Structure formats: structure tokens, C-alpha cells
Amino acid sequence: MAWPFRRVFRVCWWLLCTATFCALPLTIWEFKNQGWSPHYQAWFIGGIFVILTTPIAVYEVAIHTEYYTRPRLQRHVIRILWMVPIYSLDAWLALRFKDARAYLDPVREIYEAYVIYNFYAYLMNYLEDELGLVDEHLAKKAPTGHIWPFNHCLTPWRMGQEYIWETKKGVTSYVIIRPLCTALALITSQFGVYSEGSWRPNNSYPYLAMATNLSQMWALYCLVMFYHAFKDELQPIRPLSKFLCIKAVVFLTFWQGLSLNILVAVGAIKVNEQFTTYTAADVAEGLQDFLICIEMFLAALAHAYAFPPRDYMDPNIPTKGFFTNVRYMFDLRDVVVDVQGVLEEHLQTTAETGKAAFVKTAQGIAQTPGQIYQMLGGQATSRTHHPLPANDPDEDYMTGSLLASDHGPAAVSGRGLHHRSGSSSELQLQPT
């Protein structure tokens, strides 16, 4: 894409924005005079912001695809940039077709988790490209403790493989939990036990909202811990502005929706259902969608600043152009590998925990007759119990964790997960 065309596109877009914002107050005034319903006014105004928002993101994605000089980084940047148009268009359609909201909102919710994962993978891939073996580099650093208040209840992670694995596991787990909670919300809604905004104990909404919120907060905390350990090494790519952009969109939309649902529950948002088919919950959801349409315009500008294509415009690196590189946008093998690795770790941890509980129970049962005999003044015979040797392999199962002793991150990498602790670093996905 030639530079003159890019300049012309920017000028046209700024002229469009200026004309739109000048005409918007007059449009709202005319709506009032014509007696348009608030619903259609919100839908029309939200559509204006969607029209202004989408070209920004599409333009940034197109330029990144044109100058696809660092595939391991830019594939994650492109996925993050798609967040804004997906949120914006999803909210606008849900604002117009409220009955389809139950099927539109899950798309936005799942992509939210996907973006958090991609930001972590972006940081990890950058470090791997610059440092090589990231875990070995981290192992040479001074220990980094947990941030308050977690420093009072969690054991510090060992610098190296354990630290990398814990942060990666926390982020990737959200990619699993978020779609699972969304699926449970759809299933329970079919049985009439899910009502968004209702806090009744027999309603699944508060439990799913709590699980989603805790998982989301833990994933963002793991991102903060990862940044805290590598803030000096990550300075060349300005990670703080990128993190704030993503965190603002994720947290703002979630807590904004939760606050509106609380307002409905306390009666602050209410309607006269004798004159409308909309409930108070419908009004809250519509307001959430309308606000997202406006907020994504600002988010698009922030993302364009935080993820500029000029960082990858290197004239010394040849590129095959937009139409050749666009196919790499849809390659998701790295995501599949990482999610599979976390699932395998959780399943193995569960199996080892179950075996540890079984061994401990069996030992207790075997010791019980001898203990009773001793309490009665007798001596336990050699047939009562022979304790396991101190170096018996079964003793390792008592930890119940892959990250303890010899079952730590080293064992994880030995199970087939990429030993560089990154985001499927074997999959280069570079143009051929």
C-alpha cells in the first residue's frame, strides 16, 4: 500500500469525522422534533460511531498485513486490533435486534479472552526473539514476590520455568473458562434458570458472573506479574500503553455491564411495562450496547496509537504483500497447542491429586489397627503396616501439584509443551 494512498485515506477519514460530529447535534435535534423513539435514536447514533470506528481498525490491520515483516509478533497484533470492530458491530446489532442478543454477546465475550491470550503471546514471542531461552534469562534475576494482597496468601513463584508456566497457565485458563461459562449461560437460559441481572440464589447468573470475574482478574494479574518481571526487557515495544488499552476495554465493558445490572436489581433502572414491551433488564442491556458503540471509537484511536504499523515498516525486510500475507491471519495452530497444553496439565494434576488422596487414605487405613492396638496397651505386629521408604516415588504424589519438587515446570516441558515456555514457539508461521 503506497504512502500517498495512506495519506489520502487519513485525510478523507478526518474530514468524515469532522463533518459527522458537526452534523450529529443537528441530527439529534431533528430526531426529537420528529418524535423518534429512544431505541431508534440510540441505534442510529450507535451506527454512526460504528461507521467511524470500523475503518480505523480495518486500515491498521491492512497496513500490518501489507508490511508483515515480523509474523511471530504481528499475527497477535492483528488479532488484538480486530477486537474493536468485533465489539462495535456486535453491540450495534444487539442494540437493534434485542432477541438476538443472547447469541451475539457470547461472540464478544469469547473474543475478550482470546485477546488477553494474544497479548501474553505477543510479549512472550518478543522476549523469545530477543533473549532466546526466556526461562533461563529469568532464572538469573532476583526473586519477584506477589503484589498486594496476594503476597499475604500465595507462595512466591520460583524464578524461571515455574514463573513462566504459572503466568501462562493463568492467562490460558481464562481462554478456557470464559467460553465454558458462556456455554453454561446459554444452556441454563434454555431451562429458565439464567436471567442476566437477577441475583436470586436459584439463578445461575451470579455464579457464572463470579467465576468469569475471578478468572478474568487472575488472568490480568498474571499479565501484570509477567510485565513486572520483564519490564526492562519489554521497554522497546512500549508494553504499558498496549496493556492499558486492552485492560480498559475488558474491564470497562465488564464492570459497566455489571453496574447496570446492579442498578436494575436495586430499582434504579425501571420502566412502565404497561406502555412498552421492554423490561428494565432490556433497557440496561441496550444502554450497555449503546455505550460500547461510542466507547469503541475511542478504543480504536487508542489501539492505533499503541500498535502502530510503522514499528514493522523495515525497508530492508522484503514482504510479499497484503494478498499473500492475509491467509496467516486465520492460522490458529498456536492457540490450539497452548490450550491443549494447559488442559493436559490440569488433567494430569487432577489425576495425581486423586492418586495422592487414595495413597494417603490407604496408609491411614493400614495404620489404624496398629494404632488401636497400641492405645489398648499392646504392641503392633509387623503385619499392621510397613511405611513407605523415604525415597519412594509415591511420596511425590503427596504434593498434589505438577509444580512441586520434580513435578514442576521442567516436567511440563517434557510432556511435549514447548520447552521455551512461550506461545507455541515451534510454529513460526512465517510466509514461505
**Topology, number of strands:** 0
Described by strand count, sense and barrel closure, the largest sheet is:
none
| Rg for CA atoms | 27 Å
Question: Which runs of at least 5 residues are low in confidence (pLDDT < 50)?
Answer: 379-432
**Given the structure, what is the number of helices?**
13
Alpha-carbon distance between the two ends: 21 Å
Mean pLDDT: 79
Percent strand equals under 5%
Commentary on this structure:
With 432 residues, this protein is mainly α. It is 66% helix and 0% strand. The protein contains 13 helices and no strands. The model is unreliable at 379-432 (pLDDT under 50).
SSE diagram, text form:
Blueprint: H1 3-34, H2 38-66, H3 71-81, H4 83-96, H5 101-131, H6 134-139, H7 161-190, H8 205-230, H9 239-265, H10 280-306, H11 322-325, H12 333-375, H13 409-414
Descriptive key words:
432 residues; mainly alpha; 13 helices; 66% helix; disordered C terminus
Task: Provide a short characterization of the protein structure.
With 432 residues, this protein is mainly α. The protein is 66% helix and 0% strand.
